[in-house]
Amino acid sequence: MDPLVELEQGQIRGTTTAGVTAFLGIPYASAPAGPAMFQAPGPAPRWDGVRDATAFGPTAPQPPYNKPLDDILENPRLDGEEFLNVNVWTPDPGSAGLPVMVWIHGGAFRNGSNAVSTYDGANFARDGVVLVSINYRLGAPGFAVLDDAPHNRGLLDQLAALRWVQDNVASFGGDPGRVTIFGESAGAMSVATLLGSPAAKGLFQRAIMQSGNGSIVADLADGRLVARDLAARLGIDATSTDFGALSSAAVIDAQNALYLDLAANPDPARYGATTIKNGLGLMPLIPVVDGDIVPHYPIDAIAAGFASDIPLLLGTTTEEMRLFLAPTGITAGLPAEMLPLMVPRFGGDPTFIDTYTGNRPGATPGDVLAAIGTDSAFRVPTARFADGHHASGGETYVYEFAWRTEHLNMGACHAMELPFVFDTLASGGAQRMTASAPAQDVADAMHSAWVSFAHGKDPGWARYDADSRPVMTFDQPESRVVNAPRDDERALWG
């Protein structure tokens, strides 16, 4: 008999497979249709009778990934208005007091969903965790600054989902007082922002940041510039009424053009200096410092001790930027004379080149550029975040994912750790990335560390400190702690 769970909204029916019960596509807020697409999330719907929760719900409106990422990153797009939904996997809906993990997906704040096969939560539930994965508004609906609408609507969605977890997770056997939020890329940037947000206090007790950055927010005035540019492309005013009257397809088309123009011509007068710098030159639609949900830059809030009571696990992959540079041929084909010209575009200084090259005998100029870009966008900001959290008294653990895929020569690239964390190496979204070598032992080590942390324990290695800088490095033939890896490179960034 299919399992039923009673929520305040009504009854839902899930499915049980191999001892794990899944409830999929549960709306945590009302459908944001029309002008509501650009307003705060509304109350969750109610229903009579039993609602099927046996298939993924709709995903937030979004474009496909640009080439070549569209052939690398799984990105299901499921139509429907009720895309503010959650999935729940539980070992036993009739249990009580189980730890809870809430997954916030990445995708540069314009792509992604909780329907990606890699994010299947069954193996977390197998190991005694209630896993919840959420959707939130992306792109302009989530982050365009409109004067007649609340700011940071994508973050408001995340907060609404976390409040839904507080109100409902006990019905799935979870303990609302044992919640760990975790996310990757834009999801980890969201985690950083929530750690510094007064609105999130009490909604979670632990946090994990995978390939994040504590500075991916823009000043409000710069966010307003981006929204007005987008509105001008559409021939409308930058209001929720005008945006809400358009189709999602029309908004996405204009948004795509804006992204391309920003990448080709990152003009601070047009898009704002903080949009360009903090959006890494690629993400014009990001959270903004609004004085409310985001009162400060997350990195500053953490350094000031705002989240010192929250144990934090954070880290990066060794070669993040290879996801973006290897498939396009840049790592293999960048001419040596171009490297000093490209390094500033990737946030570094040409004086760094000798150190990075000397540490990588035989590396191509493109390999060196990828390493500098990795440190600029991810590894150094993560180290700064860890330093700030540790210095404020926060319990801090740092990792690095170093296992390399041979697929398209991407190595230990951005997002490569995801099927290892979820223990889903056999999923459709992971198979081609991990087929080059057996890697289950790395997945076992990484997944068990996340599970241990969610259960309120340490992840299996020593706490971070600013002197020895211990970093658990997940790799073959063994995963081991490395103190201060590549510290001469980190020191170049100040």
From TrEMBL:
Keyword tags: Hydrolase
Major enzyme class: hydrolase
A Pfam family per the record: COesterase
InterPro entries: AB_hydrolase_fold, CarbesteraseB, Carboxylesterase_B_AS, Type-B_Carboxylest/Lipase
Entry's EC annotation: 3.1.1.-
A GO molecular function held by the record: hydrolase activity
Boundaries of every Carboxylesterase type B domain copy: 2-493
Family in the record: Belongs to the type-B carboxylesterase/lipase family.
Name of the featured protein: Carboxylic ester hydrolase
